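Prompt: Have a read of the protein record below and flag anything odd:
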Amino acid sequence: MQRLKLFLPLIIFVIMAAIFFGVERRVQTGDYDPMALPSALVDRPLPSFSLPTLDGGQLSNAELPDTWFLVNVWATWCPSCHFEHPFLVELKEEGVAILGVDYKDKLVPAQRWLDEKGDPYFATLFDKVGTFGLDLGVTGAPETYLVDAEGIVRFRYQGALDRQIWDKVFAPRIAALQGTVEGGDSQ
């Protein structure tokens, strides 16, 4: 028994190494995506809300677009959000409707951010204490949700968006949403 205790650290190391290499192999073969975190909201309605906006207004679910749109959770304290922001401005120029959620942030720095870097959002909710973020299931910023015309969350992406991710991950899902709507209208 005493000898077994001597080999216990080695046994634990071998087990941990096997787990690590197993996950690494799954990442390389595409079987495992560390960014693909499940969301309880997918295929469920966007949570109800009535929150202040950064421009001093108030916004609720009733005032959301009747077409697909994105919900982008961001904050001035988030380094990845700084990287993602110029691409969101591009998306707005392409006609993509984006609802911003300023998550656990301070009002004045958030307003200054949008004034200086451009405002890609049709509205920005001010979620000062993170209550709406909790309802969304936010695990960190940035996170982006694809919401359909009926207000149902169809997809959640955690991490910064760029053109490559947009084309590979979001564009096919949006095309499918538009195809469903167009296909449903033609019958």
